[in-house]
Amino acid sequence: MSASTLDPNRTITELKELRALTGDADGAQRVAWSDTWVRARGWLRAKLEELPVVIETDEAGNLWATLPGASEQALLIGGHIDSVPNGGWLDGCLNTLAGLEILRRLAATGTPAVTVRLVDWADEEGARFGHSLLGSSAFSGSLKPEDLYGLRDRSGTPMPEVLATHGIHPQHMLRAQSRQANAAAYIELHIEQGPVLESLGLPLGVVIGTFGVERHRITWRGQAAHAGSTPMDRRKDALAGAAKLALSIRDIAREVGDGAVCTSGSIVCKPGIVTSVVETAEQLLDQRHIDGTKLGRMLAMAKEASLRFATEEQIQVEWERIWRIDPIPFQPELIELAEAAVVETCGTSHRLPSGPLHDAAEVARAGIPTVMLFVQSLRGISHNKIEDTLEQHLAASIEAFDRLADATISWIQRR
């Protein structure tokens, strides 16, 4: 690897610079489509304009910086600069700024063997309108533009109205698929956002793929009744069913095992007053697994349990799928290259799946060979202002990512 101009400490300094520019006492505030996000993108664009790259924004709002190579075959390096409200200083932007540093190194050493393209995906988090992986799903072709017309933020503003202020129109977003042309591989670096690497005492790991997800809205229907005059054995309490399911999914995840996770993230009760038995409880359920068959088993077990609880509580239950995605494995040869890059950098590697979704999953769905690196997260905490990673681990991750970029360029040439 020729890394004479690679400077991981410069990336760490820029991460801190971005934090100061777009954060406050509560954390990062780079929510997509906000003024702060626009400011962050302007800051990134200014950095890119110092390099011999072509800068473009596609029809889905993704920002591209292309360093032309000897071949039109392209290595894509991706990340996202948007954050959740009150988020951490590394989630997403580490990917992007590490990619920027790789572009600098490649540009300083002459024309690369293949074209290298850095992409800042638009609205990975889905924090404002609830649609995660927006820009990358337009790129992959999995986006359903018609779904965006019904989305509103908390103030009631429709998503298409906000997108239009940024020059983006849902009916044109799938044109971003044209950016797949000549894409030969995709690599991404991300903080782990979990506790596995820290528990193993390892700075870096290789991601073998992303979990499949089943996400449902479960509506429990009972009968409102006076809290003071309705005997316990005569109640039709919708919340009782939701509560039982919220507890039982923990046992379901344990039984299925192999990293299974189930989460009841919200229960909204109506009429929602202290003097009434709950008539309606709307519950959100998120289930994830790296194995598609086991993911289906978890869903079947949860549905079976819900019917049992509905009978026990004399209430009704209805299921509505909100969203799903199959488990997405990453490219085996790139996994090997990623592992070699990690071992060369810090001596030891570990392979693990990703529970959170990433733009890399959408790129892989498009059939582009893909792999990710994870760097250790302290306490396993992310989407929180206390999100952190040791600076020596950040530096190691940028070095390993650069090694992976070089190895992937050679791999593209051999194909």
Q: Extract low-pLDDT stretches.
A: none
Order of helices and strands: HEEHEEEHEHHEHEEHEEHEEHEHEH
How many structurally independent domains?
Answer: 2
Give the CATH architecture of the largest domain.
3-Layer(aba) Sandwich
Count of beta strands: 15
Name the CATH homologous superfamily of the largest domain. Zn peptidases
Report the end-to-end length measured between terminal Cα atoms: 20 Å
* CATH fold category name of the largest domain: Aminopeptidase
- Average pLDDT value? 96
How many helices does DSSP assign? 11
Percent helix, as a range, is: 25-40%
Oligomer: single chain
Biggest sheet, open or closed, and with what strands and sense? 9 strands, mixed
CATH class of the largest domain: Alpha Beta
Radius of gyration: 23 Å
Beta-strand percentage? 15-25%
Estimate the global geometry from the Cα principal axes. globular
- Determine the structural class based on helices, strands and strand pairing: alpha/beta
Polypeptide structure, described:
By secondary structure, the protein is of the alpha/beta class. The protein has two domains: 8-210 and 327-414, Zn peptidases (Aminopeptidase), CATH 3.40.630.10; 213-325, Alpha-Beta Plaits (2-Layer Sandwich). It contains eleven helices and 15 strands. The protein has helices at 8-22, 35-48, 93-108, 134-140, 159-164, 196-200, 238-256, 292-313, 332-346, 359-365, 391-414, and strands at 23-24, 27-28, 54-57, 63-67, 71-79, 114-120, 183-191, 204-210, 212-221, 261-270, 280-289, 316-325, 328-329, 351-354, 370-375. The strands form three sheets. Strands 3, 4, 5, 6, 7, 8, 13, 14 and 15 form a nine-stranded mixed β-sheet that branches. A four-stranded antiparallel β-sheet has the order 10-11-9-12, covered by helices on one side. A two-stranded antiparallel ribbon has the order 1-2. Helix 3 (93-108) crosses helix 11, helix 4 (134-140) runs parallel beside helix 10 (359-365) and helix 9 packs across helix 11. The mean pLDDT is 96.
